[in-house]
Write a structure and sequence with these properties.
The chain is 29% helix and 20% strand. Strands 1, 2, 3, 4, 5, 6, 7, 8 and 9 form a 9-stranded mixed β-sheet that branches. The longest helix has 18 residues. The protein is globular, with a radius of gyration of 18 Å.
Length: 282
């Protein structure tokens, strides 16, 4: 279970975690996420769309709305002369599942924390010496809240939430920032299908960072210490030789069990070229 924290401390810890994932952050860059209502477990994302973002059309398959949001962004900002630039920095954020964890209040706090953490952490995402402002562009959450149609579609077991940020002034040449939200509970841990889908999306977009020529996936979490074993199992399942080796950088601000790091860093055997690094933000 996570340590009970004040809201201010929770947000600060998440911000520190994200800065660690971004390599410490370069203070020369600037981030400013335009304030607006955050879609939470109890609200519809349709009510929280940013002022200048296009609405994500649910289409015939509402569970594909997150992928359509990404496609819309790429279609708008990666055409013609803008093609060829790295499309996104990426982050997977593990959050308390608002439907199955029984703690939708923790989900709302974590989502708000990720929002403010990105505002602080994106200071490390721009080029050295530049002042890059990032704004929330578009988002989609699979969890139903009070939305009956979403509940019937049951998107959340296998589709991650999507939150996209764009460079306010230079979206053609600078990467956007893609946050994929994956649910977890304190009992059975992370949603394996949802996490696998998030990793697959990063692969499809080639949105990982590079660490010693290996793709590096960045994960903020877990929230619960009990999620470590399931998280390690999902990462271990990625060791298919056809995928090639990879690196996973993980930072948690609330998992308190001292063995979480050991569990995660042992996900791959000693002879594997893949690796996990784990840090705590407290």
């Amino acid at each position: 279970m996570p340590v009970v924290r004040s809201r201010k401390l929770w947000l600060a810890v998440l911000a520190v975690g994200l800065l660690l994932l971004l390599g410490g952050g370069r203070r020369s860059a600037r981030a400013d996420v335009t304030p607006r209502p955050v879609a939470t477990a109890a609200t519809s994302t349709d009510e929280a769309e940013p002022e200048h973002a296009e609405e994500v059309d649910p289409g015939d398959d509402s569970c594909s709305a997150g992928r359509r949001a990404i496609a819309q962004y790429l279609d708008l900002y990666r055409r013609g002369a803008c093609a060829g630039h790295t499309p996104f920095h990426s982050l997977i954020a593990l959050v308390p599942d608002p439907t199955d964890s029984g703690r939708s209040d923790w989900f709302d706090s974590a989502l708000e924390g990720v929002e403010e953490a990105v505002a602080a952490g994106l200071a490390g995402a721009g080029p050295p010496g530049a002042a890059t402002t990032y704004v929330r562009d578009r988002d989609w959450l699979p969890w139903p809240g009070a939305d009956t149609a979403k509940r019937q579609a049951r998107c959340w077991p296998s589709n991650p939430g999507v939150v996209l940020y764009r460079p306010a002034n230079t979206p053609c040449t600078e990467p956007g920032f893609l946050v994929l939200l994956v649910g977890e509970t304190p009992t059975w841990g992370v949603r394996a299908e949802q996490l696998t889908a998030a990793l697959d999306q990063i692969d499809e977009l080639e949105a990982w960072e590079r660490k010693e020529r290996l793709p590096e996936y960045r994960i903020l979490g877990p929230t619960f210490s009990g999620s470590a074993a399931s998280l390690a199992a999902v990462l271990r399942s990625r060791s298919d030789p056809s995928r090639g080796p990879a690196s996973f950088a993980i930072v948690s601000g609330s998992a308190t069990n001292p063995h979480v790091g050991e569990t995660l860093e042992a996900a791959f055997g000693a002879g594997s070229a893949s690796s996990v690094s784990y840090q705590t933000a407290t």
